[in-house]
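Hey team,

Filing this mostly as a record. A colleague (T.K.) asked me to run one chain through the structure pipeline before their review meeting, and I want the input and output archived in the tracker in case anyone asks later how it was produced. No errors, nothing strange. Just documentation.

Input sequence:
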Amino acid sequence: MFEIIITKKYLWFPVKNDGKKVFAQVFLDKETVYEFDIEVSLENADFYAAWNVENYIGKTFVFNGDFPAGWEKNIKNKDTPPEKKGRFPLIHFAPKTGWMNDPNGLIFANGIYHMYFQHNPFGIKWANMHWGHAFSKDLLHWEQADEALLPDENGTMFSGCAFLDEKGSAGFGKNTILYYYTAAPASGRSHGKKFKQMLALSSDGFNIKKLPMPVIEHIVADNRDPKVFFHEASNAYIMVLFLDGNDFAVFRSQNLLEWQLTQKLTLPPLWECPDLFPLTNENGEQRWIFWAADGYYFIGDFNGYEFIPKTEKLSAYATKLAYAAQTYSNTNGRIISQSWLRTKNHGTSYTGIMAIPVSLSLKNTKNGERICLEPIEEMKSLRKNAKVLKSPENGTLTSLNENAAEIILNFYPCNEGISVLDIIGEKLSIDFSLGKVAFKDENFSFSNSDSLHLRIYIDYDALEIFTLDGSIYFPCEWDMKSLTGEISLESGNGMLESAEIYELG
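Output structure:
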């Protein structure tokens, strides 16, 4: 055990990747105020994890845990959180430090987009689920804030959503932001408890207060991931919840506090992180989308009580990299989705990045109605140093100097031949004979009788391709140590109609 007197706003904890794993308990006046797992060593830290202790200035913490003798001397009490160090993606959000997975509580409120996320500030592996927090005015430039929700006596903080209570239906005042989240019991003071759905409140998206009582008690297994919205046609608030296996539940409420179960449904192979939202098709007809973690979804009808699937299981992703997407709340009918990319980020202080935000629409394709994903319109504002090439010759298209890039390739209809885009040594192959695009170990198919338009985003850690009018989203991981080098093309004569190349600021 050791003691620390709090004199400044932040405690910095030294973290050593693959160091000794310690379960730390923090006491104030013999009451537990915080618990977390942390990897430690007496060697130099790989990074520092920050805890905002502003409310405890002048107090004395007692720490308990199997720490190496003398390790506590490396804990720092500072006025500011640690600065970013090392290499980070240029057009994708990544946390300053630690593990990140599912986006949570995506919402637009008071002129600001808020993105909360599953976060382990104390290591680059999954553990200690908190809600991290980042905010932006344009969905492009993100600033990371302090942790929004910390583990407590009910457990760690699993996934959930945010909802703007414009009417004040919950009784906390108009335009209060309500956060529905899953408390997931772990070791320590929450051991032996069960998963349940909890509620927290905020007026500004930054200062969040938890309520003590659950809004939905435990139902079955590790039931989790509540998503809440208002259904105008039936004049009620709706919650969708993952139960277990391929099972989900639908709830209704008039006050956002008391919830009535109206449906249990099984949708194989959907699993966890449900979302339910409307899209209008090209004929002006409204459809409802039941979505889950892997990008699988069903199109159907929703009457405010039950979702009725009208299609077989469909998929929005061409790879397994994207996961746990959630739509933003309160975006005035615009359906914006953002997913977690399960990147490994070797040699960095973080694990996991967020995908480019996308706009969702429902379009008629050769295979029927399908969700189409396209980069949000705001992405175009990042473009600089445009280069437009008509019928470009083989060879170098452009060079990058530590810049992210967007490349748009427009091919004529073609039945044979191969084009290869070399991106700083990594090759993207477009095989018109087979109707296949391949990058590393991933590929997708297209009809070689149609023109092919590829919109490619290049950044550290990930390459994302949008094509076939948004019906193909193809995100891939790559371990780029540098974004400096040439981008070149080898293509059959006359196959490439044009190329547009932009550096992204």
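Quick notes for T.K.: The chain is about 0% helix and 55% strand. The chain has three domains: 2-78, 98-375, 382-504.
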